[in-house]
């Protein structure tokens, strides 16, 4: 007798939590679960701003997948998905025969949203994954190393496009990194420029104003320049051109201004908005009862019909929920509707500073920074229990 | 009564030893000695291949000048020499009034000799000083970091032009560095190419054949490719073009194929050969009795009228000799002719391998590597005695 085939695409927060859930819920031979991921590791997206600035090593932001799932229960395939064929119920891979599925979970993450800004994809860097952040770090260091040879100010000018969550957290890490970086390359600290450019009229749109002010004041005290209500019109090899024509020469431009869904999802024929799928209450793609979408590829709306921002917290809850629902489904049971329960948000500003809201309480400074670390530890705990927390966690 | 002014240009091996000698020989107010150097530190040229590969930090290859000379006895000026005016007996500096001298010591080091190879100065890197080697290291790391993003083989291909001393020592360090570098950037070690290109018919021309064979065999066993009797015709943004037209694509090209004298010496009007001054037996420039030249700017011939290669050993002996001669001179005494006493040569091949000749004995492997370290320690001892050896030395 053949068992249902569940294929999970992507080992991000959503996919990994779904796999972990199925691993726990299902008995031997109830289903054949396959997890496909491009890399042999899961990367902790909420920490990528640290290795991107070089304040921590990228190995602290990744975990071997084999170390967090039971490969006796879950087939793990390291390969790149090239196409999703919904009618044939199969997934095409770069180096293998297509995979057949009965149930498909799409957790393929996001891609940068450029909002049509010219030259951005070609000339800017993106905080996306291990490969991209280690490249940012090395690029920046190379530019700093060139400075004493060429003495051009743009080599030590960094433009961060976007003052949302990732942008602000990255700027916070850069501030922490600069003293060491300047010592390494014999550069006076005051010569370095970090410029955060944001099109919206505020830093961290949607965040509590008092906390935003705290963050801006702190970062400005460390020399960060904010250009708010300032759209970037073009990104060139030399820097950025702002709306109105003013140019900022910068050898390093990092774009954090937004994400869209993975192109593969759009190409599959599923209806998307900016590449993201507006899922139903069971996290299903519209029109495809056997296809579920989690994480940044999905779009969940709140009661006022506004979309929740794509976060690790959302993806984690989706994955946890979907694991249980899928187990129920293959046993002929009922699925339960998904409801997102926001637990709070903390944005780090380097190692020792942060701002956050948990419940209806606001936190700043050391207390918020501590909360942020607790949240990181919680993810490790969900993935690998106490032993993983002890092995990889830092307070 | 005014005392004679001695101005020393450059705090390399030659200039620094001259300054140290004068500091020791002269009594208070016998002369006014000024040492001019572009950086606040002396760099240990014989070690630069290590930070260039990233096997050791560049701080291990430099010493603060203030820590090795007595600035109560020697005036130290950190500035860049822009011109030597022999008729006016003055030296022009970038940020200060010209310096008057009665005796001038030129130890301004070397510049890359390109032998007219097109594009070399623009596109290759050079193992010259702290600024240049830290840039090589960061460039290489950035190229390796890009590899997982772009998957182009040339990003992890390194061409070293020249298989002389520096070239071979650098290749030896690269071999040592690669395992760590590949781990850092998730690159399979066997994919990296290190290609050493040499126009002459042998590696390490002039060196003992048996030792050369040992070095080549060792480096080849570590995957290094040698292209001997192969002149480089052009260096481009993409790599090198060999004589005959064959192209090697390489993101990192490091040229170690030779040096010439500093341009400032040529521009001063002193007669030079490839920018180097054929000094007389008192290390004087031809036609200028008060101008002495030491180190890579000078050219000393052996008894068969062949020039000695420019080495740290030569510069050190010149500086030691000149310090004594200058002290004698200002006291109205006789100068003694300089005679170079070669003490042997050791070329490192990474941390644990080397080849060398000391006296009439040949050394390979661990013993030679140990000798190399002893030579490094000797330089620290000459500069700063036992305390400096203990502070900065490594065995």
Description:
Two copies of one chain form a homodimer. The first copy, chain A, is α/β, with parallel strands linked by helices and 395 residues long. Chain A has two domains: 5-38 and 79-113 and 259-342, FAD/NAD(P)-binding domain (3-Layer(bba) Sandwich), CATH 3.50.50.100; 120-255, FAD/NAD(P)-binding domain (3-Layer(bba) Sandwich), CATH 3.50.50.60. Chain A is built from ten helices and 26 strands. In chain A, the strands form eight sheets. Chain A has a six-stranded mixed beta sheet with strand order 5-2-1-9-22-21, covered by helices on one side. The first copy, chain A, has a five-stranded parallel beta sheet with strand order 11-18-12-13-14. The first copy, chain A, is globular and about 70 Å long. The mean pLDDT of chain A is 95.
β-strand percent of chain A reads 15-25%
In total, the number of strands of chain A is 26
Most extensive chain-chain interface? A-B, 18 and 18 residues
The first-to-last residue Cα distance of chain A is 50 Å
User: Shape of chain A, please?
Assistant: globular
Count the helices of chain A. How many? Answer: 10
pLDDT averaged over residues of chain A? 95
- Poorly predicted runs of chain A are none
**CATH architect. name of the largest domain in chain A:** 3-Layer(bba) Sandwich
- Biggest sheet descriptor of chain A: 6 strands, mixed
CATH topology of the largest domain in chain A: FAD/NAD(P)-binding domain
Order the strands across the largest sheet of chain A as they lie in space. 5-2-1-9-22-21
CATH class of the largest domain in chain A: Alpha Beta
Evaluate the radius of gyration of chain A: 22 Å
Structure classification of chain A? alpha/beta
User: What percent of residues of chain A adopt helix (DSSP H or I)?
Assistant: 25-40%
Number of domains of chain A: 2
Oligomer: homodimer
């Amino acid at each position: 007798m053949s068992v249902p085939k569940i294929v999970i695409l992507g080992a991000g927060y959503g996919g990994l939590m779904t796999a972990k859930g199925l691993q726990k819920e299902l008995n031997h031979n109830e289903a054949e679960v396959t997890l496909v991921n491009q890399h042999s590791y899961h990367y902790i997206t909420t920490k990528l701003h640290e290795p991107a600035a070089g304040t921590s090593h990228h190995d602290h932001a990744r975990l071997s997948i084999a170390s967090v799932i039971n490969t006796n229960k879950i087939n793990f395939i390291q390969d790149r998905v090239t196409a999703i064929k919904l009618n044939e119920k199969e997934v095409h891979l770069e180096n293998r025969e297509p995979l057949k599925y009965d149930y498909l979970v799409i957790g393929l993450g996001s891609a940068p949203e450029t909002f049509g800004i010219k030259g951005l994809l070609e000339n800017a860097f993106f905080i996306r994954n291990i490969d991209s952040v280690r490249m940012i770090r090395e690029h920046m260091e190379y530019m700093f190393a060139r400075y004493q040879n060429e003495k051009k100010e743009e080599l030590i000018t960094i433009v961060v496009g976007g003052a949302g969550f990732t942008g602000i957290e990255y700027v916070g890490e850069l501030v922490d990194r600069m003293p060491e970086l300047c010592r390494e390359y014999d550069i006076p600290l005051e010569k370095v420029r970090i410029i955060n450019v944001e099109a919206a009229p505020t830093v961290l749109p949607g965040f509590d104003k008092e906390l935003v002010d705290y963050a801006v004041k702190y970062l400005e005290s460390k020399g960060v320049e904010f250009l708010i209500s300032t759209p970037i019109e073009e990104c060139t090899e030399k820097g950025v051109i702002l709306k109105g024509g003013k140019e900022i020469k910068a050898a390093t431009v990092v774009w954090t201004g937004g994400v869209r869904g993975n192109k593969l999802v759009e190409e599959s024929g599923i209806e998307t908005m900016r590449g993201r799928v507006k899922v139903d209450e069971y996290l299903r793609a519209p029109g495809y009862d056997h296809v579920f979408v989690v994480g940044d590829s999905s779009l969940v709306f709140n009661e006022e019909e506004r979309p929740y921002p794509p976060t690790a917290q959302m993806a984690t809850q989706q994955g946890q929920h979907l694991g249980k629902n899928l187990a129920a489904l293959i046993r002929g049971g009922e699925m339960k509707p998904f409801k997102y329960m926001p637990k709070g948000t903390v944005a780090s500003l380097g190692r020792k500073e942060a701002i956050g809201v948990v419940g209806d309480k606001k936190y700043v400074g050391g207390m918020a920074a501590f909360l942020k670390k607790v949240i990181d530890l919680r993810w490790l705990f969900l993935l690998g229990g106490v032993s993983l927390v002890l092995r990889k966690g830092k307070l």
